[in-house]
Hints:
- By secondary structure, this protein is an alpha+beta fold.
- It has one domain.
- It is built from 1 helix and 7 strands.
- The chain has one helix at 2-23, and strands spanning 26-34, 48-55, 62-68, 77-81, 92-98, 101-106, 111-115.
- The strands form 2 sheets. A 4-stranded antiparallel β-sheet has the order 1-2-3-4, with no helix packed on it. It has a 3-stranded antiparallel β-sheet with strand order 5-6-7, with no helix packed on it.
- It is elongated, with a radius of gyration of 21 Å.
- It starts with a helix and ends in an 8-residue tail after the last strand.
Amino acid sequence: MVKNVALLLAGLLAGVAIMVAGHWPQTEVVYRSEQPPSVTYDDGSTHHLGLIRRGSVFGDATHLLVVGRDPGLGYGHWVNVHTPFLAPGKEVEETEWTAEGVRVRFAGGHELFVPARHFQNGR
């Protein structure tokens, strides 16, 4: 009886461990772009753009586009990107930086424009 309870508890703990590990968040930068030297903004900073995939082994992935001064993409202006816009493996076709902002063309055909006022001055 004690052996059966121990086996049951071990199985339960193993199942919980697998579920926790499978849902543990994973973050991956799948695309990066840096403001070219030919484009400048009023805040005088160099800005970075990244497409970040967040997901887990068992869960659906979400994608976030971040634009800001942090090369590590830890802060800035965040935009949720609807996953069907993306083509796995080559999510972004092109990034165009202009004085007005940055335009991202996704491989699935959609475009997203982020005005410069949203990512300047440390946002």
